[in-house]
Amino acid sequence: EITHFRPDFIRTYNISQNSNTTAMIRHNLLLSIRNFKRYKGSFLINSIGLSTGLACALTIFLWVQDELKKDKFHANDKQLYQVLEHVNQGTGMITRQTTVGPMAKALANEMPEVQYAVTTTYEEKQTISIDRENYADAYGMHVSPDFFKLFSHELIHGKPEQVLIDKNSVVISESLAKQFFGSTEAAIGQHMTWQQHVDIKVSGVFKDIDKSSSSQFDFLLSFEKFWEANEWVQNWFNTMPRTYVLLYEGTNVNELNAKLKNIIKVKTDNQATHRSPFLTKYSDRYLYGEYENTVQSGGRIEYVNLFSIIAVFVLLIACINFMNLSTAKASRRLKEVGVKKAIGVNRKTLIFQYLSESIILSTIAMLIGLVLVALLLPQFNSITEKQLSLNFSFDLTLGLISIVLFTGFLAGSYPALYLSGFDAATILKGKLNRATGELWTRKGLVVFQFTLSVVLIVSVLVVYEQIAFTHNKHLGYNKENIILIEEEGSISPANEALTNELNKIEGVIGAAGIEHNMAGANGGTYSVNWPGKDTEDRTEFTRTAVGYDMIELLEVEFEDGRPFSREHAADSFAIIFNQAAIDYMNIEDPVGKTVKLWGNERQIIGVVKNFHYQSFREEIKPLFFYLAPHRANYYMVKLEAQNQDKA
Predict the structure, then answer these.
(1) How many CA within 13 A on the CB side of residue 259?
(2) How many beta carbons lie within 10 A of that of residue 295, not counting itself?
(3) Comparing C-alpha atoms, which of 519, 351, 502 is closest to residue 422?
(4) Which residues, including other chains, have CB under 8 Å from residue 203's CB and lie 6 or more apart?
(5) pLDDT at 431 over 70
(6) How far is CA 381 from the centre of its chain?
């Protein structure tokens, strides 16, 4: 016999009979707060677990959102395409972004579907200045005059159709304008110097490039200037520039690709039959940039999918933890359920109450999670090289609300259904027997939770081991105690006087020039010919121009032969291959034999052991060194380990 009711129970009964939803929500909020105070330990554990899970999920959500919106901001997004090329190497197909210099002009003039076509070089760190004391190392590229008609980079000063007409013009960013001239207005018409020796005139200023753009640059020069200075870019055989087109609305891209497929064959009178250009949507290129045998096979979208799954897993673990804790402590609230049911509260009202409590707890956890994210974002940005922030845009706010509701309903659904399902009389008589299904459900949730935890822990260990592997694995050359100095303006590694001065510095073991930084393929050619080569073979050999002493400085090991030497004048016409190249060409006893490079005979004077210059996922590809100090873009300077600071 019940002799006393708490006022909350009577009030719950009255509200359950009343259709006033606002009053019910207010009452459930009051009950939730009282329960949180009463069971402080459970509330603390649940809030910490949920807030940590939500913080992880939210951080990943910010990263995924940033990835998905890359390059989507252009007003012409639906009609903006990039030209890529499928290349038949004879031994397989590859797909690349580089195109020929004349491609854009040909498309604009000969293809009625093309509204505008633009050629650009790639973003490269270069020197821009107004005098020898006031300069900046900034990223710039050469682009066609119609660049701003394709890409929605906002011009503060200047008209899109005019700023790049003059081949001696330059369009600079807002930041560069303020750095050099104090304001954007003052920059217009001013003269600057590019690479310390080319005079250019500021014709426009654009807003700093948004981080949602995959292409980041600080200034733009005229491609016509690049065209005139580099004769090799004017033919249909050499590739390096990138080509973009703006199509008219309604264009059938598949039909246009069919027309583009043979354009290089036609332009070269069937001399270059191994390259097939095609169009792909520009904004898709960032996420879907990988091809395998001419078929799109993935790209960064794989990481987006992977991290999205990880976020869901982390959130599931947090929710299951909440469910298990809630059902484990259910006995503390069984009498409450029994009394409420005895005075007429229906199951629907109880489910609503417990789901409300779960959503309130999720909201509290989200607020704590937001604080955690705000504290961790600087470090996360440093790791991911992004600039993510908690700007509460419509998308982010909608995402937060969705996560809170999803988490609240998921975490609270089982406890709500579990607690509200008991019979009042059975509870009050104390004859409650838990069903076998209930026990198996809880055990299943625990097993599932721990399985996900183990999967994520093992994944972390695998990633850690892979990072350790990349840090510790010997590359095949000695990179320790070497500093890299990039060419700026008129200073070039071809300057033997500067190399000699560097070698005189106390603590410097040696200095030499090289074409690139040994991290990635700098460029390649299929114009290596040897006796017995298949005429259809277009396999690309990585080329590396070096100065004297560079191979010795890097301590690249030789299988046979010797490095370039000042004592041998003929070394200017010599070549050194890696072992992968010799194996591919199937040349026995290679030292002393000759091959043809770019139509000229070169004698093989050495073979180096294979070394890594690309990702460890890549097989080591054929590579050759050739002596060309004037083509080098860097100095490498090796220091004594014990005397580095002074040097």
Answers:
(1) 13
(2) 10
(3) 351
(4) 158, 162, 163, 164, 166, 169, 170, 171, 188
(5) no
(6) 12
